[in-house]
Amino acid sequence: xxxxxxxxxxxxxxxxxxxxxxxxxxxxxxxxxxxxxxxxxxxxxxxxxxxxxxxxxxxxxxxxxxxxxxxxxxxxxxxxxxxxxxxxxxxxxxxxxxxxxxxxxxxxxxxxxxxxxxxxxxxxxxxxxxxxxxxxxxxxxxxxxxxxxxxxxxxxxxxxxxxxxxxxxxxxxxxxxxxxxxxxxxxxxxxxxxxxxxxxxxxxxxxxxxxxxxxxxxxxxxxxxxxxxxxxxxxxxxxxxxxxxxxxxxxxxxxxxxxxxxxxxxxxxxxxxxxxxxxxxxxxxxxxxxxxxxxxxxxxxxxxxxxxxxxxxxxxxxxxxxxxxxxxxxxxxxxxxxxxxxxxxxxxxxxxxxxxxxxxxxxxxxxxxxxxxxxxxxxxxxxxxxxxxxxxxxxxxxxx
Length: 400
Description:
- The longest helix is centred in the last third of the chain and has 22 residues, at 291-312.
- It contains 14 helices and 12 strands.
- It has a 7-stranded mixed sheet with strand order 2-8-7-6-5-3-4, with helices on both faces.
- The protein is an alpha/beta fold.
- Helix 4 packs across helix 10 and helix 7 packs across helix 8.
- The mean pLDDT is 97.
- Pfam families: Aminotran_1_2.
């Protein structure tokens, strides 16, 4: 067996099941699950129509490179969304969702055969695929804490020189999971300067980029273009799952450094990870349509407008810059105990923030927070907020 498998930690939702085991919530309250970031809005008609109209694609083997029509649609979306010009033939590669691609990309980039163990840097809290991909590639994960004091952005100054010298890949997530924080141009400029100095690759996870409330979030390729750079050592990852409410399609793409994508394509050819022609056709329709994306944003905005103020009346929380999570500080700092007690009292499930982070540099930056995914219908989110307010009011003011 691969010895690195023993290093993998339980997934957050496995830990959550263990935390809630044996708990007995009120039978008269229906369950509201705010723990899993799975889009629940209906898939758009434009995608369903394209799917049913392309079923003949089931009879053909797909190309790993994807169809020219899909790569052109992806490149066109990048141009419209970010004002970035990419070569659809060399700088775009369709993938089966960002999760699969993030994992596979690390296996392509990391060379663990040298005398020193390579380092993969991850924000902390983080999407656990970053850690698992690094470990299974033979690399050492290094966690950079993201706290309120730094706008929930990684504190790059906290990384020792000796770590930078071994760093081969840096993950960033903007908008961030779980905080919704967005990287600014000066954040990108700092990271690009570090990449130039130490030669590491930047993997920019941007799967929440289309769920925002004010200004569209800045993307990695857009930042490079604004700063007059090319895409050297930079690859961005995006997906239709959140943007278009089609997580079951497992459709996304990566874009950026052509030399890196050439090697990534080679890896994927052997990996057997080509996208179905049926889903490719549906993806073309999705990337070429923005009306359903605007409607999707409006649904999330309505939920945040209805819920944030309620929750903020009892917990330290504010509306994020983007994404569909609320990152709320709990009263007594014990996020796991809070999550279990809330479930037992109100039949509402939230995810403890410490489950999304690692103890690093003397602290777990997720401890004391819970993540609320506002993916349920509006009425359920409002009901959950009401119950959270009731629960927190009861535990903080037991005499009332």
